[in-house]
Amino acid sequence: MTRRTAAAIAIVLSSAMALTACSGSKPAPGSGSRANADAFDPVQVGKGFDTKGGNVNVLMSADFQTLDPGNSNYVQTANVGQLYYRTLVMAKETAGQPPTMVPDLATDLGKASKDGLTWTYTLKKGLKFEDGKPITSKDIKYGVERTYARDVYTQAPQELNAALTDDTYKGPYKGGDFKGIDTPDDRTIVFHLKQPFAEFPALVSRSNTAPVPKSKDTKLDYTNHPVSSGPYKIKSYERGRTMKLVRNDQWDAATDPNRPALPDTFTFSLSTAQATISQQLLADSDPTAITLDSQGGLQASDASKLNQPDVKKRTAAGLLGCTDVLNLNTETIKDPQVRKAIAIAIDRKAIQVQYGGNRFGQLTQSYINDAQRGYVEQHTALDPAGKPNPEEAKKLLKGKDFPKKLVYGYADATPRYKSMGNTLQQNLKAIGIDLQLRPIPAANYYTILAGEQMPDIARSGWCGGADSGSVRTTIDPNIGPSIDGKTYGFSNIPRYYDKKLSKELYELRGANGTSEELGKKWAGLFDKIMQDYPLVPLTRSFTNSVVGSKIRGAQVGYFFGSIDLSTVGVEK
User: Fold this and answer.
1) Looking at the domain that runs over 103-222, which CATH code has it been given?
2) What is the overall mean pLDDT for the chain?
C-alpha cells in the first residue's frame, strides 16, 4: 500500500497479483509475441550469492521523499528502509511473486481474539536500537502514535490508523492517551480494532510499526537520522547529494532471518541525471552500481541495448504489482462527464511508448485485475488498445461549461513525465482544452499533490502485494474516504468523494465476511466509482534494471519495482 515516488516505481501497496505459470519456451520481454506481460518469467542476477563485504553504489536522480518511517507512503523509502528499520511483520519479496508475510520484530504473525477485535504481538528477545538500548513495545506504540500527528506528518500511512479504535487521538505532541494500543509489558503489544480485519498482519508490515525512541524524536528533522533497528545505520546524509549506510553493530542476525545484510556499506548518489544513470549502467562504468529509479533509469531509446549479451546477463527483470495512473482533480474538474471526455481523449498507447513500450509495461484498464481476491469485471469507455477517441469526447463536452485551461503537474527528474505532458497537451487541444505543463521538484512531488497546489492532472502510481491479493488495499487508499468518512482520504490524489458511494466504502471497512466476499463488494463499488472517471489507468509496469558486473543477488521487487536492496551483494 505504498505510493510510487516520482523517480522510483509507480506505493505500494497495490494488491498482490499472482504471476501465471507458463510452460514451454518464452519470448524475450517486449518481443511482442505475447500481449500479456504475466507470461514473462522474472530474471535474477547472481542468484544464491551469500558472500559478505564490499560497497554497493546506488545511483538515483532525486533524493528520497523522506527517510522517516512515520512520514512515508513511498516505495523508495520502504526499500531503503528495510536496511535501517524493522517492523512487527515484514513483506518479504521473492522475484516475480507477491510478497509473503513473515514475522520481523514479532515472534509470529500475530494472534487474533475470537471476535477479531484485538491482535496481540510478542517481540523477539535481544532487539536493540543502534545505540544499544533495548527495543520495547512502547517504542513501537510511539512509532504508531506519531503517524496520528497529521499536522506534522502529511504523508504518514493511515491504513493501520483507520482500523484502530481511537479516532479522536491527534498524536503525541498534543497530549492525551492513545487508546488504540496497549503495552502490558515491554515485549507485548495489543492492537484494538473497530471491526475484524482478517488481513491485519499486512497493516503492521507498514512502516507505522517501525520502533521510534521517544527521546530521539526530532519531529520533521527525524528524517535526517532515523534511529536504526535494522542491519544498517546512517553514517552520513547530505540531503539532495549523498548518503552512506554502514553496519549497525547492535543488530543481531539471530533475530532477523529475513535480511542477509551482505554488503558492508551502501553509498547513495542522490542527484544523478537519469540519462547519466542509464549510460553508466549500460557501459558498466561502475561494476558495483545499481539504481532505484523507475524502469531501472533506462530511457526509451535504451530498450534495444538490453538485447546485447553483456547487458542482458546483467539485467534483473520482472513484472510488478505497480500501476501508473493519471489523477483528475475532482475539485477543479467537477463534472464526471467532463472527466470522462478527458479520459477517452488521451492517447494511452502513445504514453505506453514513452514508457518504453511493451518491454516496460502493459496497458491496463483498471487499478485492479482478475488475479486479485474478489475481483469482479470492471467496465470502462477506455479503448483497450489505448487509442484516443476525440470525436466522442467532443460529443460529451457539447453544451457543457467545462474548464478551457488546465494544468498538468509532473516530476521534473523524469523526462518521460514531461513527454507525457506533451502528449496530453496535444490530446486535450483536440477537444478544446489548453493544457499547461508545470514541473514539480521530484523530492516534493507527492507533498504538492497532497496540498493546496495540487494541479488539475497529475501522474501517480501505486505498488502492492504485501497482503497477497486483496483488492481493498488498492481501492481504499487510492479512492476511499478519510478515517472518519467525512471527506476524501489522505492518499486519495483525485480527491474523489461521493456522498453515496464513499459512504458505502466507509461502511464496507467494517463489514464481516471472507476476503473473497468482501473483495467482490470492494471491486463492485470501485467499478461504480470509475464511471465517474476520477483517474485514468495507464500501464502496469514490467521493469528491466541493469546492474554493475560485480553485483549479485539482484532481483526486481514485485512491490518495490526496483532492485530489492535487502537481497543484493557485491563480488570482491
Assistant:
1) 3.40.190.10
2) 88
Virtual CA dihedral for 327, 331, 336, 342, nearest 10 degrees? Answer: -50
469: region left, alpha or beta (phi > 0 left; psi from -120 to 50 alpha): left
In this prediction, residue 10 carries a pLDDT of 31
- Closest C-alpha to 148, from 174, 185, 122: 174
Express each pLDDT in 148-167 by its tens digit.
Answer: 999 999 888 888 998 899 88
Q: Are strands 569-570 and 188-192 parallel, antiparallel or unpaired?
A: unpaired
DSSP letters for 443-459: GGHHHHHTSTT--SEEE
Work out the angle between the directed axes of helices 515-530 and 499-508 (0-180°, nearest 10). Answer: 170
Q: What are the pLDDT digits (tens) for 276-313?
A: 999 999 999 999 999 999 888 888 788 889 989 999 99
Mean pLDDT of 172-200: 93
CA distance 414 to 6: 7
Q: What is the mean pLDDT of residues 344-363?
A: 89
**Rounded Cα–Cα distance for residues 519 and 374 (Å):** 4
**Cβ–Cβ under 8 Å, residues 507 and 493:** no
Q: What is the amino acid identity at position 506?
A: Y
Amino acid at 111: K
Task: Tell me if residue 468 falls in helix, strand or coil.
Answer: coil
| Grid cell locating 414 | 523524469
How many beta carbons lie within 10 A of that of residue 244, not counting itself?
Answer: 15
pLDDT one-digit tens code per residue, 264-285: 999 999 999 999 999 999 999 9
Alpha helices per DSSP H over 196-335:
200-203, 274-283, 309-312
* In the predicted structure, residue 469 carries a pLDDT above the cut 80: no
Which residue has better confidence, 83 or 483? 83
Buried b (16+ CB within 10 A) or exposed e, 202-221: bbbbbbbbbbbbeeebeeee
User: How would you write 109-172 as a 3-class SS string?
Assistant: CCEECCCCCEEEEEECCCCECCCCCECCHHHHHHHHHHCCCCCCCCCCCCHHHHHECCCCCCCH
Cβ within 8 Å of residue 284, ≥6 positions away: 310, 314, 548, 549
Distance CA 344, CA 346 (A): 5
Instruction: Please tell me the distance from the alpha carbon of residue 308 to that of residue 2, in angstroms, as a whole number.
Output: 34
**522-532 residue pLDDT tens:** 999 999 999 99
Q: Which amino acid is at 544?
A: N
Rg of the Cα atoms in the chain: 22
Q: List the chain domain ranges.
A: 103-222
